[in-house]
Design goal:
rod-shaped, single chain, 241 residues
């Protein structure tokens, strides 16, 4: 029974020393190591903030776009659809429709004062240009802040590697100064190096995964805007020009 108690205390002591060693390595990091860790922490916080924001934004965009398409294909009047889209600010497809419809209204108002094939042709082209401009603007809004994730994913590992190199250099410097290659001399610098590497990977991996995920979702929305623009132009040409 006594032997078991001693074994448990020894194991607990070992765990406590391991935990203390990791924290101690982070606290005793040099100025460069601390700067690297702070920079990576800021990158990680910024990435997670953008990930949460863009995830909710794309969820709303997809949900409202599906709702708009259902409304569009079940309604028979464009003005009624336009009124319903006032509550669909997060849907890029709905905003493309609004831009096209507003341009169509302007074209028909101008045609009340003039007529002719050239006016009709120019009117259709104006509506098509309005759809393209709106789609480009919506894609720009969707892509906002996403490049930061790519930047973090590509630079964070190298920043962590820089911290690793600095930690290893410090280890060899301590070995030369103390003329000893014992574990006590080498361990702090190596621990600092490994912490920097781990921090770089922890910042980069979620950023890269989120960047790829958001890109795939935005491609779907871009395809939906392009398909809707084609369908809308077919309807406009068939009924208005």
């Amino acid at each position: 029974m006594g032997a078991e108690v001693i074994t448990v205390h020894v194991a607990e002591g070992a765990k406590g020393e391991s935990a203390f060693s990791l924290v101690d390595a982070m606290m005793q990091a040099g100025p460069v190591g601390i700067l690297v860790l702070l920079l990576l922490v800021l990158f990680s916080i910024g990435s997670w903030g953008i990930i949460a924001h863009k995830f909710m934004l794309l969820q709303k965009a997809q949900k409202q776009s599906l709702s708009f398409l259902e409304t569009f294909w079940t309604s028979k009047r464009l003005d009624e659809i336009f009124d319903k889209t006032e509550q669909m600010h997060d849907s890029p497809v709905a905003q493309v429709f609004r831009a096209g419809y507003q341009e169509l209204v302007k074209v028909k108002q101008r045609e009340q004062k003039a007529s002719g094939d050239q006016v009709h042709l120019g009117g259709a082209e104006n509506v098509e240009r309005a759809l393209r401009r709106a789609a480009t603007s919506e894609m720009t809004n969707l892509e906002r802040l996403v490049p930061f994730l790519a930047t973090v994913g590509s630079t964070a590992p190298f920043i962590g590697l820089f911290g690793t190199v600095v930690g290893i250099i410090n280890s060899f410097t301590d070995i030369g100064a103390q003329k000893s290659a014992s574990l006590v001399t080498v361990a702090p610098g190596i621990a600092e190096a490994l912490v920097a590497t781990a921090a770089g990977l922890l910042a980069a991996i979620p950023a890269v995964m989120a960047f790829n995920f958001f890109n795939s979702r935005m491609k779907v929305l871009a395809a939906e805007m392009e398909n809707f623009s084609s369908d809308f132009m077919n309807i406009v040409r068939r009924h208005f020009f």
